[in-house]
Structures are given as C-alpha cells and as structure tokens.
Amino acid sequence: MKIAMLGFGNIGTGFYNEIKTNYKDIEVAKVLVRDIKKTRAIESEKLTADFDEILRDASIGTIVDVTAGEASVKYITGALSASKNVITANKMAVSLAGGELIDIAREKGVNFYFEASVGGGIPVINLFNENVKPHRIDKVVGILNGTTNYILTKMADDGIEFSDALKLAQQKGFAEPDPTFDITGLDSAYKTTILKDLLFNYKCGAEDIFCQGIDKITRADLAYAKSIGYQIKLVGYIQNNASGLDIGVRPIFLPSDHPLAGVKNEYNAIYIEGSPIGEIMLYGRGAGAKPTTASLIADLLRLKRGETNMFNNAYEHSRLKKQQMPEELKSQSNYFRFTVLDVPGVISKITAAFEKYNISISSMKQDISNSNEPVNVIFTTHESKCSKIPKMIEEIKKNKFIISEPVWFKIGI
Amino acid sequence: MKIAMLGFGNIGTGFYNEIKTNYKDIEVAKVLVRDIKKTRAIESEKLTADFDEILRDASIGTIVDVTAGEASVKYITGALSASKNVITANKMAVSLAGGELIDIAREKGVNFYFEASVGGGIPVINLFNENVKPHRIDKVVGILNGTTNYILTKMADDGIEFSDALKLAQQKGFAEPDPTFDITGLDSAYKTTILKDLLFNYKCGAEDIFCQGIDKITRADLAYAKSIGYQIKLVGYIQNNASGLDIGVRPIFLPSDHPLAGVKNEYNAIYIEGSPIGEIMLYGRGAGAKPTTASLIADLLRLKRGETNMFNNAYEHSRLKKQQMPEELKSQSNYFRFTVLDVPGVISKITAAFEKYNISISSMKQDISNSNEPVNVIFTTHESKCSKIPKMIEEIKKNKFIISEPVWFKIGI
C-alpha cells in the first residue's frame, strides 16, 4: 500500500514514525511540504512542494492529510477528484465541507475518512456512524477541546486564575502561543458541527451556532460551582428537541456526579443520550501526535480491509430535516456573577432588573467586602427564558457600580 | 430483510418492539421459544419450538440469538452451518466457542456478530476490532458487571452492608434471585475472556483465569479505601506484560481520580491503555433490554449495509502467541483485613507472618475495640510477590483469634 502525506509537522512526524516502525507493508511514498529545503526526520527525496506531483502518481491510492487550516479543503477535493482515498485530521476542512467531500468520494468510488478530526484518539466518528447514528439521539455533550479543559481543571483543582492556568498550559504544550482558537470555543464549535453532521440533517457552519469561550471565567466562579456540587466545563452540545436543535459551545455547570465531570486535564470525552442506546460516554486523549496517529491508522486499516461504505448508512432518524430551536423557546437555569463596587443599593438594583425581565432568582451570595476592593455578587436562577438575558445584562451594566463584564453560565446539561 | 429470533424473554421482547416500531424494512418472521402455548407480545403463528423449521426457511438470512446459557453454542453452530448470519447477545456462547464460530462463519461466507455480548449498549466489540486491536495494547480494565458495581456503589455511598445492598439490587431488578453468577465474578470472567480473544492470541476459558468475587467485601473495607483515596471496584483485567498476560477478575482498590472510579451504580466501563492510542474509556449501560437491543441493532445494520469482514482484521500485535504470566513473577501492593478477637498478641503474630513471607507492610490500622466485639485489623503492603500471599494467609488463619476468612485485595491497576 503506497500513500502520500500532506504536511509533516508534529502529527505528521508521529504518524510517519508509527507507520515506518509498525506497518512494513505501508509505504509513505511522498510528503507535501511548503519548504522542501528544511531538514526533517524523513528522506529528503520523498518531499515535494508540488501537490500535482502526488496527484499524477498513479501508484499512490491514498492521501493522509495532516495539515491545519482551510486550504486543506482544496487538497482533499483535488485528491478525491483524482480518485484517491483521503484520510484527514483537519477538523476545519471536515466542518466546512465534509458533506460535499463525502459526495465527491462516493461519486468517484473512493473513500473520505476523518476519525482524527474530532476527539484525537477517541474513535468517535466510527462510533457515531456504526453505533450511535442508527438510534434516536436526544443529546450529545462533549468536552472536545483539551486546552480549555486543562485550563479549567487547573483553575478548579489548584485554585489559580485563568491567566496563570493558560501560561501553565502553554508551558506544557497544551496551548498554542496564540490560544484564541481554543479559548474562544471556536475549535469546539468546528468539532460540534462535525458531530451534528453525522447525526442530524441540518446544515450550518461553526459560525452559525452559539459560542461562548472560557476567558471570563475566574477561580471565584469555579469555587462557587464546587460549593454547590458542580464543575464548570466547556462543552459542545447538541440537544435534539421537538422544536429543533439546541446546538452550541459554552461553559456549563455540570453536576459533579455526571460522568463528564470527572474528565480532567487535557482529556476529552463525548457523552450521548438516546433510545434504545441509553447513556454512553467515550473518553480519551483529544489531541497530540500519538492519539491522532492512532485514529489516522484506524482509518487507514479500514481502507486496507476494503471497507468502502462508512458513510453510506443514513437512517430514518438522521434523514429527518432539522433546524435550530428558536431562541425564544429556550429556557435554562443560570449562574450570574457581577463584579461590583461595594456601594449601597447594588443588590436592590440588580434584583429589580431580574424581576423586570421575569427571571426568577433561586439563590444569591455576596462576598465579604474588604474596604474598597470590588466584590462578587453571585446569583443562580430557576429555569428562565434565555432570550431575555442579554437585554437584562445590558440594563444591569448601565449601573456605575458594575466594574467588569458580567458573566453568566448555564446550570445543568 | 427477514430474520428469526432465538428466545423471547426480557431482551427479546425489547428487541422485537424496537424492530417493529422503527425498522419497517426488517421482518421478524419466526421466534424460537420453548413453550409456544405461552401468551407473548407477538403473533402466536410466529412462534415455533422447532429450531429446524427456522433452519429450513431459506427466506430467513439472519438469526438473532437472545437466549442465555450454553445451549446457544449448538444453535449458533447450526445456523452458521446452514449459511445464516448470526447475531448473539450470549456471552457464554462467545466465550466458550467464539473463535470456532467465527471460523465456521468465514468458511460459510456468512457473519457472526456479538456486540451485545459484552458491555450491553457500549459498542466495545466494534471498537476493539476497528480502533483498539490495530495498536499495541498494554492494559484493559473493565467494570463489566452492572450488578456488582451497583452493590459496591450502594455499600460505598450509603454505608450499607453487602447483604442489604444485594437485596436492594434484587428489588431494583439489577440482581437475579440467585446472584451467584454475578457476585462470584464469573459473569465478568466470561466477558474478560471475550475481550482477551479479540486482542490477544491466547486460548483459555473463563475457568482458567484468576477470579475473586465481591461477597467478602464489607462496608469497613470500602470506608477504609475511601479514607486513603481509593474506591473498590470489581474489574476484569488483562495486563500485557513481557512475561505474559496477567488476566483475571478481582475487586481492586482503584485511585479515586481514575476515570473508572467515577463509574457508579449499574453502569459499565472499559478502560484501555496502549500505544499510540493512549488511554481511552467507554462508558454506558452494561445490561438491560434497551441497551442490549441497541447493540443487536448495530450488528443487524452492519449486515444490512453488507459489511462482511468484521473479524478479518488480525494485526501483528494480536497475532503474537501469548501465554499467562507465571504466578511467581506477579507482584502488587495489597490491602488485608483480618477480623479478630481483641486479645493480646494479635498484631505481633500477624506482622511476624508478614515478615516471614517477606511481605513489606506500608500501613496498619486497628479499630477501637468495644469490649468483647471482634475488631478489624487492616494492613496495606508495598509491592510484594503475589505467590506467597495464599500461604501467608493460611498460616495467619491458624491463629484462634482469627474469626472469619481474611480478605485481601490488590491496590492499584
């Protein structure tokens, strides 16, 4: 079996070494890189900067794409159109064009596999296709980003602030020098839309779903969550309601006895509820060269065995046309933190706003004030309409005693 | 697609209803039952007590076996030999004859699938085949029996004794009137050998592996475990060591922050360590009509899609001949509880035995004595040779102050 690789970074190197060591019958014949002059842990004659050279080589039947970024869509389109199988780890490509790429593969009689695009070494794509998709799925909730889960774990367990936890993650190699893509939730949004595409007949991109990041979370939020029996986790979620899909990425208060609550550090997990399957969860390493390599190889061996129909299984449940649930129908319990100057009238002004917008308070807690230091005022609410919350926050923010952006998180999943 | 069923109990009824409701293109044509006179939630003309009638019906291509017990092996052999696909939920049949049944299926060009035989609704078989088996697997540890996990959870969380937890499990329908098969660990042993067969080239039956049940565990053991940061869980384990497989079923002290430690009540989970896959865990409902139905249907849809090669993927790692690790090479940390009469000399006599057998004590704790009540003396040990432990226990048991069977559990996984 002769294959080509696109990219030779951290994951590419790991994949190449695993193939060389353990799969003598698979030959990496060519590797597309930007700069063929750079010294790499591979024979330089295998390197090429010319994608067409790979396309023209009829002996190469399969291309393994370990590039990042949107350009990958063009490469994959080209490779499938040239009747080559493609295996990719690129979540952006799959999220942006997965459906179209599967269509091209089907038309050309080749295969397009992407186990490594979500959940790293966790075989979530195979599982969704073979064991989850056939059933009525009510809920998918995933800790899909190792960087943010590592940061939140360190903040919760070691009582450190976001900026210190981020630094630690960067030192450990779990966060990029520019962590924006992870901490804003965008990485999780890409992965969430891929999972959505596997299960539900509703087209949308990562930018079309609700997305809230973790950068406003403080250790005070995590400590409060813990004190009432919750963990804060950044999750991608798809709730399959009668009125449509509630889909997005957000930090949520997860009950401490929920199986996802035990998922710590850089680990990922995907939790599913449906019928008759019940609750299932998959847990593992969501990133890194080795776990990603494991998933790329699982796809490669699937091809080698001659499996050709991974995505030809559309079931009744997943064929039903879906849409997003209208915002005005959503309701949830919430956590709010307002960081305020400790002046008279704060609580009455905030509670008046809650009352005006008909959001029912279930608990309130105010920190002890140290003279002129700002204090946190925390509210939890009963289940309330989500659509009114942004307006209420805007109104509360007009008060001069509010000294930073209020935060609000959903309680429960 | 026309299928026949073997058995129509709790799981059979659940499976039949799901097919009738959600899979209009699959027809259950015949059902083998012992007593065709008994009224069941199915048209009586579909019932037959004659297996040959099903075999002779050329329109039936697939047989779904939801019987329990060893007789299933004969039915499956007959069905495969008659060139019919077989899907089974019967762990005993798969453990006893899985390899031979796969061989018959291959020879006849049909398929033998058994997703439902381990882990109920958790797609562990598919996953092991497609995503785990290709890689070097170092360790498999599974909470494979919902009954015992429910009992241990109730004992640990509610502080009740084994007998009360068992009664509760029976009331909830999580334990059989005769719970022997579950609490002795035998059910887990069957499932452990199935997982072993999927990954390692070593033949043995459930009776050939180490097997320790949970009936001697008391709430004192669970409370002590908790106090030093552990949970006691009954696990099936396969450790792939250079000197052979360490395989068995036993209650172990599992560190509280291990992902398996959070698996509560009737849930099951399978945890795997390997390279390059890293650590992965699957969690879900390990028994019951609905989850088992989900797995049966996943297999059925696999057939319907025309997949025919589920078990044709033997990789280098799994082809290597293995054997069990010799007992004298095994070493581990341990927990010991001796329930004793509170007379002078107890501690010195027990510790003398530890010394004689070269088992190094790491901690000791003796309950406060209430006059003539027996007390628990608990020891933990550093890593020590396992082979000496039974002898040491026999020697300690000769002391008259020992009033019940000593217990010892492995600490750590």
Major sheet of chain A: 11 strands, mixed
The number of helical runs of chain A is 14
Summed over residues and divided by their number, the pLDDT of chain A gives a mean of 93
Largest interface chains and counts: A-B, 51 and 51 residues
Annotation keywords:
homodimer; alpha/beta; Alpha-Beta Plaits; eleven-stranded mixed β-sheet; Rossmann fold; six-stranded parallel β-sheet; 3 domains; Dihydrodipicolinate Reductase, domain 2; 413 residues
Task: Describe the model.
2 copies of one chain form a homodimer. Chain A has 413 residues and is of the alpha/beta class. Chain A folds into 3 domains: 2-113, NAD(P)-binding Rossmann-like Domain (Rossmann fold, 3-Layer(aba) Sandwich); 136-285, Dihydrodipicolinate Reductase, domain 2 (2-Layer Sandwich); 327-411, ACT domain (Alpha-Beta Plaits, 2-Layer Sandwich), CATH 3.30.70.260. Helix content of chain A is 35%, strand content 25%. Chain A is built from 14 helices and 17 strands. Chain A has helices spanning 10-22, 51-56, 72-81, 91-108, 124-132, 146-158, 162-171, 180-183, 186-199, 219-227, 289-304, 316-319, 346-356, 389-397, and strands at residues 2-6, 27-32, 47-48, 62-65, 85-88, 112-113, 136-143, 210-211, 230-241, 244-255, 267-275, 278-285, 331-340, 361-366, 375-381, 384-385, 407-411. In chain A, strands 7, 8, 9, 10, 11, 12, 13, 14, 15, 16 and 17 form an 11-stranded mixed beta sheet that branches. A 6-stranded parallel beta sheet of chain A has the order 3-2-1-4-5-6, sandwiched between helices. In chain A, β14 (361-366) and β15 form a beta hairpin. In chain A, α3 (72-81) runs parallel beside α4 (91-108) and α6 (146-158) crosses α7. Chain A is elongated, with a radius of gyration of 24 Å. The two termini of chain A are 45 Å apart. The model of chain A has no long low-confidence stretch (mean pLDDT 93). At the A-B interface, α1, α5, β12 and α11 of A face α1, α5, β12 and α11 of B.
